Amino acid sequence: MVDPKRARYIAGVEGAPPVPPPGGYHGARRVEGAPTPSSPIVSSAEAPAEKQPANAIGWIALVTAILFALVLLGTLLAGLTDLLYGVTMLTLQLVVVGVVVAALFSSRGRVLGASALVITLMLNVATVGAMSALQTSASGSYDGQKTDEQRHEEAYPGIKDLSAGEVLRQPSLEEVRAQSDAALAEIRNRLSERFGYTWTEAGAEDLRPERNGYGGESMLVQYISVPWMTNEPIQDHDRKLAVMGVIEDVLIEYGMYGMYSFNDPSSTLDDTILEKFYGSTDPLSQHTWEWYSDNYPDPLRFYAMIYDLSNDPDGELRAEREAETATTGEPLEGLQIYFLAPELLSEDDRAEFEERMQEYPGL
Q1: Three-state secondary structure along 13-76?
Q2: How confident is the model at residue 125 (pLDDT cuts 50, 70, 90)?
Q3: Rounded Cα distance, 144 and 122, in Å
Q4: For residue 11, what pLDDT is reported?
Q5: How far apart are CA 216 and CA 206, in angstroms?
Q6: Distance, CA of 312 to CA of 278 (rounded, Å)
Q7: Which of 65, 93, 109, 262 could be 116's S-S partner, Cβ–Cβ 3.0 to 4.6 Å?
Q8: Are 127 and 120 in contact (CB under 8 A)?
Q9: Which tens digit of pLDDT belongs to each residue from 171-193?
């Protein structure tokens, strides 16, 4: 039989340890200062700092970057991109960059400063200027950036630094064409009679508008006659000299000077130029001869070229001539002759030219 006084110290059937008797076990010691269950538990970790709002410099940087980007886009859409590279716009760009940099160095403005930096990098004077250049190049709309004065100068019918009197005193396009056609015909006849050459047209007459020096085209043109070429090659050195002699005689009869050889070592051209354009410094081994004459102060200029593939061991000239032949149908080698004259006014345009020039008394 269990002592009833001891029954309260006996564990239950669950196996839990016995509870201590009232007042605790005999001889047990209390630990001074031990916390009671009601004592608050304090952590040694710091409480999270309160998030601070962005300061004024961050907002200023963001707003400034957005406004400046809008100004740039407005300038682009309005077609006023010539203002992008003015002093005012470049100064504003520097101010925006300065504000953005200041915000990045501020702990409370760094986030907004970073956003402003992204906007500034995407839309600035350089990037918007590049977009404008691409847009203008694609559309060809250059006029939107020009003043009325610039457009007026572009329409100048003459050529800068060439007076109207000089233009009107020189031979007309029709006179130059008639003279060059007659001279070319005489050259062909004499060479055919003496050497039996036959001829092929190596292209068509070419009239190219002359620039006026103010960004536009004048009423004057550059004239290039129909080029003619022999069907037979000319490879013998003495024969080449004889051919040029016949041509020179004809040119002198038509009021032109004696011929000048660009490919000769006695010319003012450097040896490297001679080798590059004519294949050698020695006329005996050159693949190209080029002789010239003019009738200065009149505008007529004459060119005679002899292409000789027998002096083209590396085939460089042949490749060039084959490409030219594929375009014009001319022979690969032989003599080619033609006239060129710049800054010519047609007789049909003379009256209009004089009338329009009256609108430009100061030019």
Answers
A1: CCCCCCCCCCCCCCCCCCCCCCCCCCCCCCCCCCCCCCCCCCCHHHHHHHHHHHHHHHHHHHHH
A2: confident
A3: 25
A4: 47
A5: 20
A6: 10
A7: 65
A8: no
A9: 999 999 999 999 999 999 999 99
72 and 128 in contact (C-beta within 8 Å)? yes
Model confidence pLDDT, tens digit, residues 287-312: 999 999 999 999 999 999 999 999 99
Q: Which residues pair with 209 in a beta bridge?
A: 221
Rg (CA), the chain: 47
Choose among 223, 224, 218, 205: nearest CA to 167: 218
Contact residues for 172 (Cβ-Cβ < 8 A; gap 6+): 344, 345, 346, 347, 350
* C-alpha triplet 251, 293, 196: angle, nearest 5°: 50
Cβ within 8 Å of residue 318, ≥6 positions away: 309, 312, 332
Sign of the CA dihedral with 188 first, then 190, 194, and 196 last: positive
Please give the helix or strand (H or E) that residue 155 lies within, else none: none
Q: How far is CA 163 from CA 138, 160, 168, 305, in A?
A: 36, 8, 9, 34
Token pair, residue 37, equals 């269950």
Give how far Cα 283 sits from Cα of 174, 216, 347, Å. 37, 42, 43
Number of CB atoms found within 10 A of residue 292's CB? 16
CB 93 within 8 A of CB 101: no
